[in-house]
From TrEMBL:
InterPro entries: MCP, MCP_dom_sf, MCP_transmembrane. Belongs to the mitochondrial carrier (TC 2.A.29) family. It comes from the Eukaryota. The keyword Methyltransferase does not apply. It is a multi-pass membrane protein. This is Adenine nucleotide transporter 1.
C-alpha cells in the first residue's frame, strides 16, 4: 500500500510538473470532461459523412453513421487497385471500367473488400485527430500570445496549418498498422496465392513473416503527406469561414453564422485542395506497403510476371522509379474515384463535428 501511495503521489507530481511547463494548472475534472466531449465529437464526425446526405434523420446514430464508409467502399477499393496495379498488366483503366471489372470478376462482395478494416480504423482515427487538433490549437495559440504579448491574438492560417499537421500525424501514427494491412486486404483477390483471412490474421502474418517494422511500411510519405492533406484541410476550412464571416459576401452570413450549405462548400473546397496536393504521396505509400509481401496479389505482381517483389528501397526511390517507368501521371492514378469519395466526406465531417460540439457544449479556446 505504501509503495502504491508513493507511485500515486509521484505520478501526480509528474503530471503537475509537465503540465505546469506550459504555465497552466493540472487538468481539472471539468477539463477532463471537455477532453472526453471533444473525443466523442471527433469520433461521431468520423462516422458521419456521405450517409448523412442519404439518411439525415440518423445523423447522430453511431452504428448507422459508419455505413457512410461502406457507401463509398467500392470507390476506395478501386482507388487503391489503380494505385498499385502492375503497369505491365493493366486490369483497371478507369473509374467506370474498373468498377465493372470488379463486379464481373469478383461479384458484389468484391466491391467491399477491405471495408471492415476501414470501418474499424476510422472512429479512433477521427477521435484522436479532432481532439489532437483542438489541443494543438490551444497550445500553439497560447505560445503565440506569449511570444507576441497580444492576449487577443487569434490563430493565423499558418498556425492552423501547423495544428492540423500535428493532429494528422498523431492520428495516422496511432492507427497506421491497420491502414497498412487494409491496403493488402483490399487488393487481394480469389486468384491471390495466399489469402489474409481478416484484420488480425493479416496483422499477425505481417508481424511474424516481415517483422514489426513492416507494419509501418510507407509511414514516412504518410507523415509528409499529412502536412498538405490534413493541415490544408483545417487551414483552408477555417480561413474560408473567417473570410466569409468578416466580408459577408452575397448574403451568405446571417447573424455571424454560416449556413450548413456554406459550411459544406467550405469543407468541399478544403478537401479538394488538401487531397490534390498530397495525392502523389498517397500513391507512393500504397506502393511501399506492397513491398516484401510474400505471395502478393496478382494485381501487384502482374499476371505472367511471376511472383517477383516490388523493389523500392525507400520513398525517394519509389518516386524516382514510378516517374521513370510510368510517367508523372502515375502519381495521380486513382485521383478521380478518390475525389468523388473524399470531397463530400470531408465537407460533411467538418460540419458534423461543429454541430456535435455545439450540442455537447465544447468550445475551442484557451482554458481559464
Amino acid at each position: 500500500m505504501a509503495s502504491e501511495d508513493v507511485v500515486g503521489k509521484t505520478s501526480e507530481t509528474a503530471v503537475s510538473t509537465i503540465v505546469n511547463l506550459r504555465g497552466v494548472k493540472a487538468p481539472s475534472q471539468a477539463a477532463l470532461l471537455s477532453i472526453c466531449k471533444s473525443l466523442v465529437a471527433g469520433g461521431v464526425a468520423g462516422g458521419v459523412s456521405v450517409h448523412s446526405l442519404l439518411f439525415p434523420e440518423y445523423r447522430f446514430r453511431f452504428r448507422r453513421d459508419l455505413l457512410s464508409r461502406t457507401a463509398v467502399a467500392p470507390l476506395e477499393r478501386l482507388k487503391i487497385l489503380l494505385q498499385v496495379q502492375n503497369p505491365h498488366s493493366i486490369k483497371y483503366s478507369g473509374t467506370v471500367q474498373g468498377l465493372k471489372y470488379i463486379w464481373r470478376t469478383e461479384g458484389f462482395r468484391g466491391l467491399f473488400k477491405g471495408n471492415g478494416t476501414n470501418c474499424a480504423r476510422i472512429v479512433p482515427n477521427s477521435a484522436v485527430k479532432f481532439f489532437s487538433y483542438e489541443e494543438a490549437s490551444k497550445g500553439i495559440l497560447w505560445f503565440y500570445r506569449q511570444q507576441t504579448g497580444k492576449e487577443d491574438a487569434e490563430l493565423t492560417p499558418l498556425l492552423r496549418l501547423g495544428a492540423g499537421a500535428c493532429a494528422g500525424i498523431i492520428a495516422m501514427s496511432a492507427t497506421y498498422p491497420m491502414d497498412m494491412v487494409r491496403g493488402r486486404l483490399t487488393v487481394q483477390t480469389e486468384l491471390s496465392p495466399r489469402q489474409y483471412r481478416g484484420i488480425f490474421h493479416a496483422l499477425s502474418t505481417v508481424f511474424h513473416e516481415e517483422g514489426p517494422r513492416a507494419l509501418y511500411k510507407g509511414w514516412l510519405p504518410s507523415v509528409i503527406g499529412v502536412v498538405p492533406y490534413v493541415g490544408l484541410n483545417f487551414a483552408v476550412y477555417e480561413s474560408l469561414k473567417d473570410y466569409l464571416i468578416k466580408s459577408r459576401p452575397l448574403g451568405l452570413v446571417e447573424d455571424s453564422e454560416l449556413s450548413v450549405a456554406t459550411k459544406l462548400a467550405c469543407g468541399a473546397a478544403a478537401g479538394t485542395v488538401g487531397q490534390t496536393v498530397a495525392y502523389p504521396l498517397d500513391v507512393i505509400r500504397r506502393r511501399m506497403q506492397m513491398v516484401g509481401w510474400k505471395d502478393a496479389a496478382s494485381v501487384v505482381t502482374g499476371d505472367g510476371q511471376g511472383k517477383s517483389r516490388l523493389e523500392y528501397s525507400g520513398m525517394v526511390d519509389a518516386f524516382r522509379k514510378t516517374v521513370r517507368h510510368e510517367g508523372f501521371g502515375a502519381l495521380y492514378k486513382g485521383l478521380v474515384p478518390n475525389s468523388v469519395k473524399v470531397v463530400p466526406s470531408i465537407a460533411i465531417a467538418f460540419v458534423t463535428y461543429e454541430v456535435v460540439k455545439d450540442i455537447l457544449g465544447v468550445e475551442i479556446r484557451i482554458s481559464d
